[in-house]
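Hi everyone,

Forwarding the result from last night's run.
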Amino acid sequence: MQHIIVFSYIFTILVGVSAFTIQWLAGRGETKGRSREVQYFISMLLLLNLFDFVIYYFDNIINRPSGNLMLSFGDCLIAILVYLWLQVEVSFAGNMTESKLLKLGQKFILVYLAVWLIAVAFFMEYSWIRLLIDVPLICLLVIGSAALILQGRKDGVDPLTLVYEGVITFFVTCNYATYLVSESGLLLSTGKNIMDVTIFFWLIINAANLIILYKKDFVESFLKEDEGTVQTLNLEDAMELVKKKYELTNREIEILTEVYNGKTNTQIAEDLFISESTVKAHIYNIFRKMNVKSRVEAVCIIREEKEIKAK
């Protein structure tokens, strides 16, 4: 069994490295607003995979128990991973509610790290202090992700992305809970073995990353046909290309179309029957996803998409 787990760790790390490579290549081939968030998430994921491998190696291969401090440190790394994952999910959607959720997560993770450092430095024997701050973070992960997925479904985010979000959220939660149970000592008889299942959670997460990055970023950036002459698309078709390329929602496409037509924020709010502050929030997220800083740059991208290579 140990050989199977060691092989699984090595294979998982290789899959993670492959996902990171594809994300890096896709980021070079086609700049996307969510590229940085995904990169941070995958980097932390790789670090956690290596960290878990070290713990398993010390505990089971050379029989030198890593101790509760190492588990606590891994618990802290997963807490950071949770925040980075929420950032990725917000980059898929992006409106006022999601921005507030991300700010809440940012504040909580700072509090979490402060409490964790104090607990480790002065109250190491009281593990319940560290465990106590894990519960709200798990709740934030589950509730926040569910809200983001429901909002994404409402805004027309494609089903593959929604499934991806659900899979990652579920298995990150399972992994977090595994650390929580192992560190708490609730299952003393199996506390050592319960950590062995984390590798299978990491494997599924890395595989999901690899699939989504290949299908949605790498293919679009590098496997497009480049033959034929240039022809002009109509605005509706061009906007559909922009929507897929930059992961925009239906509402964001509506607002971007109004921006392309030269409408002001006030005019857009009146046309779509929403508040001007909501328009500003959507435009902010559109610019972030498209990696632009002005309306002129956004309009230039749309004009470029209207000219395509005909087969």
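The beta strands are 230-232, 307-309.

Cheers,
N.
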